[in-house]
Design goal:
With 68 residues, this protein is α+β, with helices and mostly antiparallel strands. The protein is built from 1 helix and 2 strands.
Length: 68
């Protein structure tokens, strides 16, 4: 916690811009290079369309493709 405060005080004193990056969240915004389909989540199914699947456009947390 002390190092964060030190960095913020240095940035404030030197009038620098501070940016934040959440590395854990980057996996949720990654593009997929291959086509991946999944079953519809429960609660999102419409009557007569229960057998349809969803094509993923972005990676989901836990996919092995999310790491690439």
């Amino acid at each position: 916690m002390t190092s964060i405060r030190t960095m913020l005080s240095i940035a404030a004193r030197m009038d620098l811009e501070v940016a934040q990056l959440d590395v854990k969240m980057m996996f949720l915004h990654g593009d997929l290079e291959e086509e991946i389909y999944m079953q519809q989540p429960k609660g999102f199914m419409e009557k007569g369309k229960e057998n349809l699947v969803c094509r993923l456009r972005k990676s989901l947390y836990g996919l092995k493709q999310a790491l690439w």
